[in-house]
Each structure stands twice: as C-alpha cells, then as structure tokens.
Amino acid sequence: MTRSAALSAYRTALRATRVAFKNDAEVLLASRAKIKQGFFEDLEQGSQTVQEKIDNLNSVSKFLVQNIVQGEKKEDGQYFLNIHDKTELGDNETIKQKKADMGSLAGAKATKRCSDK
C-alpha cells in the first residue's frame, strides 16, 4: 500500500509540473528533476515517516496546480496570464478588511505593550 501510494504521489507531482509549467520547457525539466531528487533523497534519509513524505509531496502537487500561473509577455508589452480551470481564484475579501482586523497579514504586531489599554 505504501509503495503504491508513494508512486501515485510521485506521478501526481510530475503531472502537476506539466500543468504548472506547460509552456516553459526549461522550468518544467528543472522542476521534474528537483522532484525526482527530493523524492529519492527523502526516501533514503528517513527523517519523516513515509506517510508524511507522501502527504508533503501531495501538498506540493496541489500547490503547483492551484497557485502557479504562467504569464506571457505580448508584443504590446502587456502580459497574458494562462489561468486554467484548476487555478485557485480568491474572492478578494481581505481587500475590504481594515488593516487592524487582518493581524499579522497586514504587518500588525500581535503583542500589546503595557501602555496599551
């Protein structure tokens, strides 16, 4: 079971690189080489459990597919974004929030001073 889950996660990661870096052969090959290197190094090191490594690789795959968007510069100087159906699109709700309500996202410090009441 673990071996098949690991190979499935590996194949899923390679597919994710194909989706994320479809039109950029150099980055596609480099990302696949990095995944291959990391996959086999992680299996040898044994610092994490096998299931943690599989979960980590699945998280990387999900991130690549949902959050990486390629941009292509057109002749007129504008960029065309290659957004696909699996790209995660936010709802921009954080734009409507006040910076004080956002906490650490806005750079606000979570600690209070003695002089604050």
What does this structure look like?
- With 117 residues, this protein is mainly alpha-helical.
- The protein has one domain.
- Helices cover 56% and strands 7% of the residues.
- A two-stranded antiparallel ribbon has the order 1-2.
- A hairpin with a 5-residue loop joins strand 1 and strand 2.
- Helix 1 (2-20) packs antiparallel against helix 2 (25-45) and helix 1 (2-20) runs parallel beside helix 3.
- The radius of gyration is 20 Å and the shape is flat.
- The model has no long low-confidence stretch (mean pLDDT 79).
- Structural classification: mainly alpha
**Could you give the order of the helices and strands?**
HHHEEHH
Low-pLDDT parts are none
What's the rounded overall pLDDT mean?
Answer: 79
Could you give the count of β-strands?
Answer: 2
